[in-house]
Amino acid sequence: MILHRLRSRVEILSALIVPAIIFFTALYSMAADVTLAWDANDPEPEGYRVFVRESGASYNYANPIWESDAASETTCTLIGLTEGTTYYFVVRAYEGDLESADSEEVSYTPAAAAVNQAPVAEAGGSQSVYEEAAITLDGSASSDADGSIASYLWAQTGGTAVALSSAATAQASFTAPIVDLAGETLTFSLTVTDDEGESDTDTVTVSVLKSSSTDVDGDNVPDVLDLFPNDPAEWADNDGDGIGDNADTDDDNDGMSDTWEENYGLDPLTDDADLDADGDGVTNLDEYSADSDPTTVPGNTAPDAPTIEEVSPAETVSLTPVLVTAAYFDADNDAHFKSQWQISTDSDFATLILDKTSKVQLTAYEVGKMVLDVDTVYYWRVRFIDTDNGVSEWSETATFTTIAPETAGDADLDGIPDSQEVDAAADVNEDGVADSLEGDIMSLNTVEGQTMVGVEPSSDGITLVSVESIASDTISDPSVKMGFGLIGFRLYLADGVTTATVKISFNTRVPADAQLYKYTEENGWQVYANAVFAANRKSVTLLLEDGGAGDEDGVVNGVIVDPSGVSSSTVANEDSASLSTGDTSSSGGGGGGGCFISSTLVSTDGSTPEIKQIWLQFRQTIERFWAAMIRWSAAN
């Protein structure tokens, strides 16, 4: 209420009127009402009159706006004033026909009625989450500039229906639904209402991604890689005939049973019916029909057993030694077709650490990254196979001892190279917990591309024991580039577990057309068949089989070793130019923004490029030279 007080001097109009001071007060009570008050005159008059005018007008003294009936009335309330109009007031005392002069003039402008401002709804920022995650929708940033928010109301407007909890509060919650591989977007609206009844609405989206760990049927294969997500007995279908590989007796649909192919060393996952494994002019399928041996040519003379170019047993070697033999010899002059290499921690080879048969590494075999442990004695042997599939006797057994942990670069024995350790606060998988505080993830800095990568098992019965970032220039095929080199890891599998699912997370998004590639000396670069990238392109989940594709050691031994890398089918022009000249250097781009492999340089049939053949032959020559030098040095 606004108070106005006026003063005026009352003129002496008769002997009964004494000069006095009159006070005038205006009280604002409502938007267009005013209350006036003044001090009583002395001597007391008959009464008082109030006059009003607007700007530019004069007082009409013949028509007061208010008149008292008694001298005791020194206040009045005027109503019906127009909001926003300025009024001027004076008061006069009167006695009969006599009237004093005006009091001091005061003015008053009734304020315009305040217009309520609508509230502002803030539903929060968009979210990307994994299925079955607990999600909170936060509208607490909503506001009302001239009052308060009286109510909140959340509602789902799109996507798979979810059960909203606390939908009438600032923060609602729900559990993200299970989605398919493509993921799904859910939409929600928030309506807020203020204390004057005005409301506002805002919307928010929640993108639900397929989790790498969701396994509806409990077969230890996450749904992202399970072709039969509701059948715990099946997860793969190699020939795409709708029958899972576990129930299918012919997984490659080539007319020959898997059991028969496995018995004779053929590949049960590749259609090789029209091939002739032993070169006798009879196809494998015909051999199957005749129940004959498809791998042996009658009368063939097997090659001589290999002679090992043995390194002194007392000498320690790196974790990627090259095993070397003397030259191949076959009495009936059959060409050298393959060599089978084995490494064991037992002299009787009861437990195999590596068992690889190679058509490329014939007399020199480079052991792959992460296959061997530090400070361990190993035994190795090799045998030759000719073009008629004649198999030699095993070579003599040779031994070597690997280097100590500190020499290998992992002095703290945590499974991560010391030079690649990440900061203790790093959270590569973005689950809100530092990787160093989680027991199932190992994170590292890559040696190329300035990227952080985390590796973690996504299925049960798996223990991750080591990870390593591997430079691209360690690969014998220099015709390709990777975004941040290769990522290798080593897994131990519990008894009875033969498959493993692993999630590899990146602290940067990979290109939309990027794929996971694996390199082997036998087949060159190949795309991983069982790998699925998350919708946000910041992780990839892959399914591995002990001794199968992706397992570097090539043997079912409860250990899976896998080096692989992310590559893209699109590279910049300057990268293509450097590839054509054999440049294998990585780009220095930060955050994994480096160059990616050009698919035009990968043969579709998996054949080895000629440059790799030349390089390998050169390296084998060098290895033989150094082996000879070692023997000469020991003898002298």
* Bulk shape: rod-shaped
Largest sheet geometry: 5 strands, antiparallel
Number of strands: 33
The amount of beta strand, in percent, is: 25-35%
Structural class: mainly beta
Low-confidence residue ranges: 1-30, 570-613
What is the end-to-end distance? 115 Å
What is the residue-averaged pLDDT? 81
Tally of helical runs: 5
| Rg from alpha-carbon coordinates | 45 Å
The percent of residues in helical segments reads: under 10%
How would you sum up this structure, described in words?
- The chain is mainly beta and 636 residues long.
- Among the domains are: 31-108, Immunoglobulin-like (Sandwich), CATH 2.60.40.10; 127-209, Immunoglobulins (Immunoglobulin-like, Sandwich); 307-407, Immunoglobulin-like (Sandwich), CATH 2.60.40; 435-568.
- The protein has helices at residues 258-263, 284-290, 405-408, 573-580, 610-635; strands at 7-9, 21-23, 25-28, 34-37, 47-54, 66-67, 75-78, 87-95, 98-99, 106-108, 127-130, 134-138, 149-158, 171-175, 184-194, 199-209, 316-317, 322-324, 336-344, 352-358, 364-366, 377-386, 398-402, 442-445, 452-457, 462-470, 486-493, 499-506, 514-520, 524-527, 531-533, 539-545, 559-568.
- The strands form nine sheets. Strands 5, 6, 8, 9 and 10 form a five-stranded antiparallel sheet that branches.
- The termini are far apart.
Brief sketch in words of this structure:
GO terms for molecular function: calcium ion binding. The protein has 636 residues and is mainly beta. It is built from five helices and 33 strands.
Write the layout of secondary structure elements.
Blueprint: E1 7-9, E2 21-23, E3 25-28, E4 34-37, E5 47-54, E6 66-67, E7 75-78, E8 87-95, E9 98-99, E10 106-108, E11 127-130, E12 134-138, E13 149-158, E14 171-175, E15 184-194, E16 199-209, H1 258-263, H2 284-290, E17 316-317, E18 322-324, E19 336-344, E20 352-358, E21 364-366, E22 377-386, E23 398-402, H3 405-408, E24 442-445, E25 452-457, E26 462-470, E27 486-493, E28 499-506, E29 514-520, E30 524-527, E31 531-533, E32 539-545, E33 559-568, H4 573-580, H5 610-635
Parallel strand pairs: 11-16, 17-23
Antiparallel strand pairs: 1-2, 3-4, 4-7, 5-6, 5-8, 8-9, 8-10, 12-14, 13-15, 15-16, 18-21, 19-20, 19-22, 22-23, 24-25, 25-28, 26-27, 27-33, 28-32, 29-30, 29-33, 31-32
